[in-house]
């Protein structure tokens, strides 16, 4: 059974940084692309960032480009989301997800392609 466990969320002031982690167990890590999504109160869940199986390709939402960095460590079966220059509008529950059905860059934002999801971690950015 595949499990994704996020950690690293918390409360931070605007301009600060956090690093989220997503630890995976149950299947071979390298067979899945990894993505991060977020859901703010009263809003739909939205794509944040994704990384390919190999780690060579990444994709970001326009709202986080230049501030967030996604990475993965196969040795630890963990994906990361480094978030810098945080803004109050980044406040949300952040979810990591794993997909075996991403074949082009256009697939990264498509939630339906992700097979497994974590429980989410809260990120709150105060102004």
General description of the model:
With 127 residues, the protein is mainly β. It is built from no helices and eleven strands. The chain has strands spanning 3-7, 10-13, 18-25, 33-39, 46-51, 58-60, 68-73, 78-83, 92-99, 116-117, 121-126. The strands form two sheets. Strands 2, 4, 5, 6, 9, 10 and 11 form a seven-stranded mixed β-sheet that branches. Strand 5 (46-51) and strand 6 (58-60) form a beta hairpin. The protein starts with a strand and ends with a strand.
Summarize the structure in short.
By secondary structure, the chain is mainly beta. Helix content is 0%, strand content 48%.
Oligomeric state as shown: single chain
Number of strands: 11
Proportion of residues in extended strands: over 45%
Low-confidence stretches: none
Alpha-carbon distance between the termini?
40 Å
Structural class: mainly beta
Average residue-wise pLDDT = 94
Helix content: under 10%
Instruction: Please compute the radius of gyration using only Cα atoms.
Output: 13 Å
Shape: globular
> Largest sheet at a glance?
7 strands, mixed
Order of helices and strands: EEEEEEEEEEE
Treating each run of at least 4 consecutive H or I residues as one helix, how many helices? Answer: 0
Q: What's the helix and strand layout?
A:
Blueprint: E1 3-7, E2 10-13, E3 18-25, E4 33-39, E5 46-51, E6 58-60, E7 68-73, E8 78-83, E9 92-99, E10 116-117, E11 121-126
Parallel strand pairs: 2-11
Antiparallel strand pairs: 1-3, 3-8, 4-5, 4-9, 5-6, 7-8, 9-10, 9-11
